[in-house]
Amino acid sequence: MAALHMNISCLIFLQVLLLLLSLFAQTNAQGLKVGFYDNTCPKAEGIVKKSVLDAIKKDRTIGAPLLRMFFHDCFVRGCEGSVLLELKNKKDEKNAPPNLSLRGFEIIDNVKAAVEKECPGVVSCSDVLALLARDAVVALNGPSWGVETGRRDGRVTNINEARANLPSPFDNITSLITQFRSKGLDKKDLVVLSGGHTVGNGHCPLITNRLYNFTGKGDSDPNLDTEYAANLRGRCKPTDTTTALEMDPGSFKTFDKSYFKLVSQRRGFFQSDAALLDNQETKSYVLKQTKSYGSTFFKDFGVSMVKMGRIGVLTGRAGEVRKKCRMVN
Ligand code: HEM
Ligand SMILES: *[C@@H]1O[C@H](CO)[C@@H](O)[C@H](O)[C@H]1NC(C)=O
Ligand SMILES: *[C@@H]1O[C@H](CO)[C@@H](O)[C@H](O)[C@H]1NC(C)=O
Ligand SMILES: *[C@@H]1O[C@H](CO)[C@@H](O)[C@H](O)[C@H]1NC(C)=O
């Protein structure tokens, strides 16, 4: 009898200990944790995943913009859903010049509506973006990771903040490193997250300077492989402002490791991609990922995405849980 009592109290003690451990271990300093909605909306993650799979089944090119959307959200005011807000006067982030081809807003609306139907007012738009980004990468055959949730939505969007906070495809390595550092991300995060360009498209006007008259002598960017430059000139005439090209030719709908091989061959699409060869640390990462054994990109990508997902988050009682992602409550 005594032994039985001992066992039961031991068990209870262990359970309490485990509960406490899981509470402390999973919640990071900012109050985000994997599985934040496990009790309040247990079906949320499944609903998002299914919606993404359905959307990507219909149109596989929608995956890349969903990933990019999370990056744009996090770099401007933090990951708090401001990229989705619309102002009547159009002075919102969506209307800032770096928005070229930002798309997928209807999918986000649909996912949010489905989640609202399941549990009204519980799951934030910023968390929907974080989950969508992961599920899009998975659907494109990329890695998976545990997405921290618990973000709340902001109430402000501003066209000038998007201009000021988003890196430009014309930026050099010094400038890229500085901009990432200002968001709490290091050189490794920069090179790892740039690997997101293994999927999706870029538009001609962002590379015409590399193809024509780079230094004013009718030349092309010396950091661009000459054969690839000729190929791109064939598809981007100097005045073309509308054509979109695959950034990872041949596998732009698959999240794979080929981005790093391309960059190492001086076939990075933007100057900002090519720039990764101009710093010792980012360069050595690029070269390491080109080896089929020893590539750590898939694992690293999840780690850096989680880190990016912590930028400037609102948690606890800050902000709100928007009912509709395009407008504040
Ligand atoms: C390092 C700084 C970065 C710069 C300068 C940059 C710049 C750009 C630009 C200019 C485009 C093409 C827009 C267009 O012409 O339509 C683009 C596309 C894209 N970017 Fe980035 N980006 C950066 C980092 C990231 C990060 C961190 C991610 C995500 C992890 C990301 C994911 C994407 C994706 C998926 C696309 C393709 C979008 C589509 O197909 O519509 N980028 N990026
Ligand atoms: C991007 O900005 C332009 C004008 O600056 C606007 O016409 C366009 O609708 C915006 N794109 C998105 C997806 O909101
Ligand atoms: C990099 O870009 C910054 C900002 O545009 C500029 O001030 C700096 O001189 C550039 N650095 C190099 C090495 O070109
Ligand atoms: C190339 O750039 C130089 C200097 O900006 C300019 O004088 C020249 O007209 C340009 N050539 C072409 C073909 O655009």
Automatic annotation (TrEMBL):
Q: Which residues form the signal peptide?
A: 1-29
Keyword Ion transport, does the record have it?
Answer: no
Q: Does the keyword Manganese apply?
A: no
Q: Where is the active site?
A: 72 (proton acceptor)
Where is this protein localized, as stated in its record?
Secreted
Positions binding Ca(2+) 1 in this chain are: 73, 76, 78, 82, 93
For the site labelled Transition state stabilizer, the residues are: 68
Q: What is one GO cellular-component annotation here? A: extracellular region
Name the UniProt key words of this record, in alphabetical order: Calcium, Disulfide bond, Glycoprotein, Heme, Hydrogen peroxide, Iron, Metal-binding, Oxidoreductase, Peroxidase, Secreted, Signal
| UniProt: heme b binding residues | 197
The cofactors named for this UniProt entry are: Ca(2+); heme b
- The EC designation for this entry is 1.11.1.7
Positions with a binding annotation for Ca(2+) 2:
198, 248, 256
Disulfide linkage:
41-119, 74-79, 125-325, 204-236
| InterPro entries, sorted | Haem_peroxidase, Haem_peroxidase_sf, Peroxidase_pln, Peroxidases_AS, Peroxidases_heam-ligand_BS, Secretory_peroxidase
Question: GO molecular function terms here?
Answer: heme binding; lactoperoxidase activity; metal ion binding
Give residues annotated as binding substrate. Answer: 167
List residues traversing the bilayer: none
Check the record and name the CDD domains matching this protein. secretory_peroxidase
CC cofactor note: Binds 2 calcium ions per subunit. Binds 1 heme b (iron(II)-protoporphyrin IX) group per subunit.
Q: What PANTHER family does the entry give?
A: PEROXIDASE 25-RELATED
Give the family this protein belongs to, as stated in its UniProt record.
Belongs to the peroxidase family. Classical plant (class III) peroxidase subfamily. Belongs to the peroxidase family. Ascorbate peroxidase subfamily.
Functional description taken from the UniProt entry: Removal of H(2)O(2), oxidation of toxic reductants, biosynthesis and degradation of lignin, suberization, auxin catabolism, response to environmental stresses such as wounding, pathogen attack and oxidative stress. These functions might be dependent on each isozyme/isoform in each plant tissue.
What protein is this chain from? Peroxidase
